[in-house]
Amino acid sequence: MGAGMARKARDGAPKAGSLLENPRRSTTNRMNRTLALVAALAAGIAPAAGVAQTAAPKPAAAPAAVAPQAVPAKIALIEYEQAAAATNEGERSLQELQKKYEPKKTQLQALAQEVDALKKQAQSAPATQTEADRASRLRSIDTKEKQLQRDGEDASNAYNSDVQEALGKIAQKLGPIVIKYVQQNGYTMLLNNTGQQGGIGVLWTLPGTDISQAIVDAYNASSGVAAPVPSAPTPTVRPRATTPTTPKQ
Fold this sequence. Notes:
The chain is mostly helical.
């Protein structure tokens, strides 16, 4: 699942976090976006257990626990962040954000060119320049560089925040569709490929394949350690009612 979608996302979708982004921060930004999108998927999965529910479902009783059992594995893999960005809605949102930040990008590029020009002037300055002139040039370069770094970080943070918010909204709506797809096509597990080293995470499993509680029960039975006695509830201390006194005449 998702091979063609992943290719479309990599090749055709606008790249999130590309607004003069510092390369050293790109991995962190991508990871933060992925965590946020996975959280959004979890929020989208919550109502997906009953895909046919109406927009305002009535409260239902908690589903009974499903006993774990071995089932033939059929695993689906999705690049969830890229899938959200590759949707028509995602591409439109990213294009709108690129357009929104284009003036700031142009401003930062102009400032970067100014810094480069000042550096070239300093390098080609005549040997006869005074120490005061040289120090003044260096101070000007340092001031401009700090401004460029500060403005660039502020712009990238704002851009990435907008991207995260835009794709997060799509991720919430994408979640139930993803779960419906894997359920209807007989998958037993859904994995998310974040694109990072070791970045494969489980997004969904077929009910009955999680053996966590069964392992806990088996360990408790073999260990012979009794369950702890539940703590007694703390009594609630209520203030004693006071009877108002009648002032003497």
